[in-house]
Every structure is written in structure tokens, then in C-alpha cells.
Amino acid sequence: MRRPHPRARAFASVPLLLLLIAGALWSWSLPRIGFRDIGEFGLLDRFPLAFYASLLVLTAGFLHTLRRAGTAPLWPLAYCVALLTALKAPPALLYDSVRYAWASKHDEVITRLLAEGTVHPHTPLSGGMAAYDQWPGFFSLNAALIRAFGTTGAAPYINWAPIAFGLLMLPVLVLIYRTFTDDWRLVWTAVWIFQLANWVGQDYLAPQAFAYLLFLSVFAVVVRHFVRPGSARTLRSRDRLDPAATAVPPPTGRWQRALCVAILAPLIAAVNASHQLTPVMLCMTLMALCLTRRYRNLGLLAVTGLIMLIWDLTMGRVLFLDTLSTLRDSAGDLMKNSRAGYAGAPTGPGPELVGNANIAMVLVLGALAGTAVLLRRRLARSALPLLLAAAAPVPLFAVNDYGGEMLFRVYLFGLPGTAFFAAAALVPTAAGTNRARRHARRATAVALPLALVALLAGFLPSYYGKEGMQYVSPTETAFVRRSYDRAPEGALIMATTGSFPGAYYRYDRYERWFFTEQEVSGNLRMLEDPAGYLDAGVPEGRPAYVLLTPAQDRATFSEGYLPAGGFARMSAALKRSPRFRVVEENRNGLFLEHVPAPGVSASP
User: Fold this and answer.
1) What letter would DSSP give residue 494?
2) Whose CA is closest to 219, among 438, 508, 415, 463?
3) Using CA atoms, how far apart are residues 106 and 456, in angstroms rounded to an integer?
4) Helices marked H in 95-206 — which ranges?
5) CA atoms lying within 13 Å on the CB side of residue 437
6) Using CA atoms, how far apart are residues 403 and 256, in angstroms rounded to an integer?
7) pLDDT in tens, 225-283
8) What is the rounded distance in angstroms from the CA atom of residue 52 to the CA atom of residue 31?
9) Over the stretch 351-393, which tens digit does the pLDDT of each residue have?
10) How many C-beta atoms surround the C-beta of residue 33 within 10 A?
11) Could you tell me which of 276, 281, 128, 143 has the C-alpha nearest to residue 207?
């Protein structure tokens, strides 16, 4: 029996050793993360140095595995899984409450669905909550899983959603990238970059994360099984291809494509049943693919558009018609639609760092991807579907701002293609003369580590820089729920913003008014007389309460809704006013009851 070469044994031992070192550093640092005392920079200054060291060791180990990615692909896979775990598992392992206010909101939707067993798509609910009954697919799936496994609700697994979605996306991304390249180094580098660049925070327990996974799955099937006969002859000739490119997948006949449409239809329907924007992104991507003769499948596009239209005009009719009525004001307003957030600019050193890191990440990825498109034109030609998919969402800037999130959604849906071309700029082809290969290896030896470390440095503030808004202690959440329980059903609950856990507790029982979620100029006028402003907004005869918490204080300042000290001045003014009575006040928050004007009684 032939023994392995000593160099091969040494290569196999290095990735294992580095993985063990990274795991030991990460495990040692985990209980030392100061998440209970989060400051202005989120968790960035609460992570021990060992945590950062573990990520650098992981990066070094991954770079080592790329040398033999074609013959030992399991090592890059292991490192990609380790990176995903290292970056996103700390909250799941450490936090004693739900991370992220919107995850708490979705937990309330699942809880209501479990209790009532059905949805009410045409029942008006305050705060836009009726939309969750109009697109209930994701929540229905969670309710079914909870019943099947006998858990008490979504809370036990809610913080693990980013890990679960990340693991499910890994094979889909590999399948997509393998469609366009035979170079495993390029495949795994693109996956690694995708994970580092996926900082937009849409991978929590949300319909967007679920629909995005289905979107990628549909895209993977399309690029592999919807190639039209006779449409890519030149791209099947090796001398016309980039050395790293793979030949175009075999063509499929009309009946084969029709069968694939029938297989994809349930996935497309699930996308439409779960999320409002993702079906639009899917249609835009399929339209972009139709620009090439290779993927001009009008039947699939028609089926996708028809499913979307049927859902929008039936279950989602109320919100769909309301959105159409607002398009007149938002269409064509590129500056507003491409603005991140709704209020003013981020405020404070942490949020400002997050904003700068976001911009830097976009610029670095764009520069790398643009470089690959210019310098590796043959690869760009064979991988044109990925390039078109990356550009497809951009025109949506001209349509709507999607509540201040269109910028992030366009970035998210363009990321798979952008990550691929960014990787192509950093992983040059192994073909060419010996001198050219030497130059390429030298350039890669410098550029690739620098780029991966730079993207890692951008991910951490982008994902954890505003963690003070994401983590709330269980006692504060309990205070919020206790305050709601004190209010009679049908009462108006006033809070500065909905960005705090528990904001939508029993959302079908109360009316809500998040009174700072408006233009900053309106909030400045509100601060001149907070009590008078809120008193004027309470409908006559309606019992009303004000709920203020430390999480709201951090959110309104960080997001630019209120100036520094504005939350404290507002709270003090409300406590002094005869129109509001303190029900409970402690370090977890302030709960006040509105006192009607003399002669006006609040109906229970």
C-alpha cells in the first residue's frame, strides 16, 4: 500500500491545527464577551482580543486550504462553516433574550397564529401588522414546525436563525458558482466573501431570510436547467472561455423546461406567500436573464409574474393597492429611495462607524467586482447571468424606498453575483506562461489576504456596531409586557419607535403610535411641547398610555430621530405634565397614563 507523501500529510495537518487553534481562542473568548454592558461601539469593544485572533486564524487557515481546494474541497467547506459559526453564533449562545426587535415582532406573529390557528388578511391592524396576515407563509411554516416538535414557541430557536439560514444557503451558493467556474478556489473564495459581505442583518427569523433562500434556489435551478438549445455554442469551446470558467450547462428542450417550471412553481408560490418584495426581485432577475438568448425563458417569467399578481390581488390586495397609491409620490425620487433609513443621519460614534463601514464595504466590493469584469472579460461573458442578476435590482431605486430599506435590499439581492466577481479579481487563473503564473501567485499572495481581512474588518462594525439596539435585558422586556397588560384592550400605546423588543406584544389588542418615526423636523417641533403634542394626538374617549424604555432611548438617538438628550428632556416633560400620570418607573422604563382633559372621560 502506497503511503501518502510527507508534504501531503503536512498539508492535511495544518488546516486541522489552525482550525483547532481558532476554535480554542473563540471558545475561550465567548464567556468573556461583555454583552450585558454594551457601550457606544456595540460589541466591538466588548469582544476580547482572543475573539479577533480566532477570526484571523480562521482566515489564515482558509487561505491555506485554497492551495488544494480542488483535491480537498472539504477543508474550505469546514472553514466556511466555522466562519459562519464564529461570526454569528455568539448571540445565540450568550443572550438570555431575543436579539433584534424585529425578531421579537415576528415571534409575536407566530404566537398569535398558534393561538388562533388562522389568519385574517382583511382585518385592519395598527402599525402595518395586517401585512403579516396577508403574507403568512413563513409564519405558518414556523407554527407547523412548533406544533410538530412540541416546543413552547419560536423563542428557543429564534437566535439561531442566522446560523440555520447560513448553513442552508451554503450548498445553494456552491451550486450557483459551480455553474460558472471549474476552479474550486474561486468557488470557495466567493462563498467566503459572500459571508463577510452579508452584513445587512436580513438573516434573522424573518420572511425575508426564508424568501431569499428560496430566491437563490430558484435562481440555481434556472441557470443550470433552463439553457435554450443552440444559444451558447461559442461558450462551449474551451479556447473561447476563461481558463477558470466552466462550459455552459447542456441545453434543455421545451418539455424539460416546462417540467422545471412545474417543479419551481411551488417554490415561487412559497416566495409570494411569505414576502412582499422578494417576488418583485425574482421577476426583475428573470427579466434581466431574458436579455441573453441563453436564458430567454418567457414562459417562466410569465408564470412567476402571474403567481405574484394573483397573490397581490387576493391575499395581499389591501397593502398592494395602498402601495400603488403611494408610488406616485416615491417613483423617480432617486435620492429618497436610495437613502438608508427613514430619519436623519446616524448619530454617535458607533452608528457613524457602522455607516462608514457599510459604505466602505460597498465600495471595496464594487471595485473588486468591476476590476474582474474589466480584466477577465471571458469570464464575465460566460458568467453573464451572475452579472445581470447583480445589476437587476438596481432599477428599483426609481420606484420606492421600501420604508428606507431599499438600499439594503438591492445590495442583498445583488450580493451573490458581486461576491463571485470580487473573488474573480482576487483569484487569478492558473493558466498562462510560467512567468505569468508566478506574477499571479505573488499578486494573490498579497491581495487576497489583505482583501479578506479588510472585508472582515468591515463586517464586524456593520453587524455588531449597533448591538446596543439589538440586545435588551429580560427585565426590560418583562417591564414592557407588564405595561401592556395593565392597559385595557383597545387602548392607544404611544412609544417613540417600534425598534424595541416587545413593542408588538399582543399587537391585535392595542392601537400603537410610534410618534418619532417621522421626519426629524417634526420631532424637533414635538420636543418643544411633548405633552401637548401627544395629548393632541389622542382620540377623544380613547384610553392612552406612554411607554418609554432605555432601548428606545438608544434607538432614537442612534437612528437620528432625536438629538442628544432629547429623549431625557421629553421624558421629564411628560412626567411634569398634568396630562400624564406615572404608573411605573424604574431603570427598565417609564410607563405613564394619559389623563383626559376635564369633562372628557376615557372609555374602557
Assistant:
1) E
2) 415
3) 29
4) 101-116, 130-134, 137-149, 161-178, 184-197
5) 6
6) 41
7) 998 887 766 666 666 788 888 888 888 888 898 999 999 999 999 999 999 999 999 99
8) 14
9) 888 888 989 999 999 999 999 999 898 898 889 999 999 999 9
10) 16
11) 276
